[in-house]
Amino acid sequence: MTVEGEVVGQIRHGLLVLVGVAPQDTVEDARVLADKLVGLRIFADDDGRMNRSVSDVAGGVLVVSQFTLYGDARKGRRPSFTGAAQPDRAAPLVDLVAECITAAGVEVATGVFGAMMAVELLNDGPVTLILEVEDGKLH
């Protein structure tokens, strides 16, 4: 991932995690999300079955803040982002997700909160999942 042509975060093998934060999200929500990401078995085992976690494959996690996940384009031609938390609320929770993953022993790289970033992804699969945490529980 680059900002103004400079690499600010990268991993080799692992997960690209786009994190959107809503105004009601909590510290517990961030911890639950991090725990789920570390243990999620979506990497292939020797039989080609999704049976290994990012920690099992010695992978990394690239955590990118992405308020546009809360974009609402149902009305008009321009999305509304009122469903996203303000930066002073969102940034610490995105940082906490990264810190909790690191504390679990997994390599973490991050973007720059609020920056225009060029994110590159080589998707091996593809596997794309949506994880929603509310009130400390996955939904």
Compact overview of the structure:
This protein has 139 residues and is an alpha/beta fold. It has helices at 27-39, 87-103; strands spanning 2-3, 6-7, 14-19, 43-44, 50-52, 60-65, 107-110, 133-134, 137-138.
**CATH domain class:** Alpha Beta
Strand count: 9
Q: In what order do the strands lie side by side in the largest sheet? A: 3-6-7
Number of domains: 1
| Assigned CATH superfamily | D-tyrosyl-tRNA(Tyr) deacylase
CATH fold-level topology: D-tyrosyl-trna(Tyr) Deacylase, Chain: A
Portion in strands: 15-25%
Indicate the percent of residues in helices: 10-25%
- Radius of gyration computed on alpha carbons: 15 Å
- Average pLDDT, to the nearest integer? 94
Order of helices and strands: EEEHEEEHEEE
N-to-C CA distance: 29 Å
Q: Globular, elongated, flat, extended or rod-shaped: what is the shape?
A: globular
Low-pLDDT segments, ≥5 res: none
Number of helices: 2
Describe the protein.
This protein has 139 residues and is α/β, with parallel strands linked by helices. Helix 1 runs parallel beside helix 2 (87-103). The chain is globular and about 50 Å long. It has a single domain (2-138), classed as D-tyrosyl-tRNA(Tyr) deacylase (D-tyrosyl-trna(Tyr) Deacylase, Chain: A), CATH 3.50.80.10. The mean pLDDT is 94. It has two helices and nine strands. Helices cover 22% and strands 21% of the residues. The strands form four sheets. It has a three-stranded parallel β-sheet with strand order 3-6-7, with helices on one face. It has a two-stranded antiparallel ribbon with strand order 1-2.
